[in-house]
Structure formats: structure tokens, C-alpha cells
Amino acid sequence: MREIMKKKVSIIIPCHNEEASLRQLYAGVTEVTGALPDYEWELLFINDGSTDGTLQVIKELREGDGRIGYADLSRNFGKESAMLAGIDYATGDCAIIMDADLQDPPALIPEMLRWWEEGYQDVYARRKSRGKESRVRRRLTLAYYKLLQRTSRVNVLQNVGDFRLLDRKCLDALRQLRESERYTKGLFCWIGYRKKEIEFDRGDRVSGSSSYSMWALINLAIEGITSFTTVPLRIATLMGFVISFLTIIYIAYFLVKTLLYGDPVRGFPTLVIVTLFLGGVQLFSLGIIGEYLGKVYHETKRRPVYLVNEYSEPNETEKN
Ligand code: UDP
Ligand code: MG
Asked: Which tens digits make up the pLDDT trace of 60-82?
């Protein structure tokens, strides 16, 4: 028996088709864990429906290292859901969420732990540079964060990904948030707790390509807005109000004009413009309402966020 219980740190790694980078990631992580023997470690891989040999690689790594556990999801549920699976299974006093593609450097872990020991409960890494990315993508991302920040009550942080250390309290809080359409970045902010920001340079993927296409990002963006703010609904209402008001004035103007001067067949362009404009506004507003209605629809089904095919816990629970 040891006199002092070591604190346990879980590392959660969502993986989707990452067979090429896993070993390198594992090497990087073991280097860090080796230098920090005062902690007990748990490496938790979440295989998010990979179609390549990811699961095989994880199993092989687990053979050689008793600290490794994994959950194999029944299909690809997306990173947001995979992260929740990791948070559910993590048994540590704190957990660090990391990408499998080495874009989140393991070298940052010691610093995160230092702040955690100081009493911070959510130590998140902010990217100083964003690695290789197109200018359009960067611009759009920045504009998006600004919009989100202005319209929602939670302060969703810019340039902050999912790479962070979460105290047990944060993990327990996140486990309670079971919404199926998850925007985890916002949830981290929503739960609160003592936060500490550290900075890092985000590198490029070591292999493979980002699973997020432009389209997936647009979807995630809409997810973010609709999960955290109902301002678009408000805008639709206001727009409706203003336009109705203007229309009343316009109607009055036409009535008076017709009564005073009669009505030769003119004004066709006006008619077309007004019809098209109103039609457009109506469709847009309906779309917004539909977005929220769709959300309500999905949440009312109360489906689990992910399904697990197989879970293997780490072999070794404190062996020394
Ligand atoms: N990922 C996942 N499920 C998915 C897509 C991605 O678990 O459906 C994982 C992926 O394996 C990686 C992390 O989430 O560990 C980040 O993915 P990616 O590198 O594609 O995103 P980006 O770095 O471009 O934000
Ligand atoms: Mg990546």
C-alpha cells in the first residue's frame, strides 16, 4: 500500500480513421506520462466508427500498456458525441481531451496539470496560430465567433478547441448535459467553473485529412447558433413587425393615390418587387423557425447520444 493516493488523470482521445497517427500520438503521450510519475494515468481511446484499422491499432497498443482502455462506438457518431462517451467512461480525478492527429501537442499536458494543481478546474488551450488553413476558412471562422458571442449569453471563446483539462466537477457537470445535438464548445462555457487559459501553436495534422469539410463546419456553426441563442427568432419577429408596418404605409399611399388620380395600369414592377421581397422574408423566417422546431423534435426523442459496441477498461489499476 502506498501512503499517498496518486491523483488519476484520464486522457480522452476521440478517434475517427486515425490508424496512421495513433502510434505517434501514443509515443508523444507516453513521453509526457513517463516524466510525470506522480500521477496515475488512464488513456481512453474512443473509436468513433472508424472504417480503417484504428480499432486494431488501439487493441495492439492496449496489449502493451495496461493503462489503455477503449470504447468502440457502434458507428460514427461525430466527435461531439465521442467526447461525451469519453467523459462518461473517464475515471480520473481530471481528464484531458485531445485530438488523435497530434494537432494538440501532448507537451502541453504538464502545464495544464500545474494549473489544475493550483485550483483551476477547466484549463483550456487557445491557439495562437491555426496551422495550415485557407484564408476564407479563417475569415469565416472569426466572423462566426463574433456573431455567436454577440447574440448568445454564454461567452463562447474564439480560437479555443476541445483541447483542455477538465476537473472531475466539470466532467460530472458535462455528463448531465445529455442533449443529442451537441455543441460541446458552448457547453464548456455554459458549465462555468474556474477557467484558465494557456496558449499554444496549433500544428498541422500528421496524416490523413480533417474530417470536417466546409459543409460539416457550416452545419456545426448553425448548431452552435441554434443551441445557444434564440436571437434569430427575435430577428424574424422584428423583421416581420417592421415590414408589416411599412406595408401598411404603402397600402395607405396606394389607396390615396388611386382615389385621387385613378389607376392606369402601371405599378407592375412594384407589385413584383413587393411580392418577391415578402416571399423571401417569409421563407427565411420559416426556415429559422424550422431550425428550432427541428431541434425540439430531435431532443424530444430522447435518444442516447451514442451507442457502444464494446468497452474494455484499462487492465492495470494502480499496480505499484
Ligand atoms: N473525430 C471523431 N469523430 C468524427 C470526426 C473526428 O472522433 O466524426 C476525431 C478525430 O479522430 C480527431 C478529432 O476528432 O481526433 C479532430 O478531428 P479532425 O482532426 O478531423 O478535426 P480538425 O482538427 O480539423 O478540427
Ligand atoms: Mg485535426
From this structure: 999 888 899 999 999 999 899 99
Q: In this predicted model, what pLDDT tens digit does every residue of 262-302 receive, in sequence order?
A: 767 667 777 877 887 788 778 778 878 888 888 888 788 88
| Closest to 146 (Cα-Cα) out of 72, 78, 223, 224 | 224
Residue 122: which of 183, 192, 173, 178 has the closest Cα? 192
Decide if pLDDT at 153 tops 50: yes
Site to probe by mutation for ligand 1, drawn from 99, 200, 204 as the one with most ligand atoms within 8 Å of Cβ, is 99
Partners of 308 in the beta sheet?
Answer: 73
Task: Answer yes or no: are the C-beta atoms of 58 and 47 closer than 8 Å.
Answer: yes
- Nearest-CA residue for ligand 1 atom 13 is 99
Closest residue to atom 18 of ligand 1, CA basis: 210
Q: How far is the CA of 70 from the centre of ligand 1 (A)?
A: 17
Q: In whole angstroms, what is the distance from residue 114 CA to residue 127 CA?
A: 19
In this predicted model, what pLDDT tens digit does every residue of 27-70 receive, in sequence order? 999 999 988 888 999 999 999 999 998 999 999 999 888 899 99
CA dist 289 and 236 (Å) reads 9
Q: Is the CB of 71 under 6 A from ligand 1?
A: no
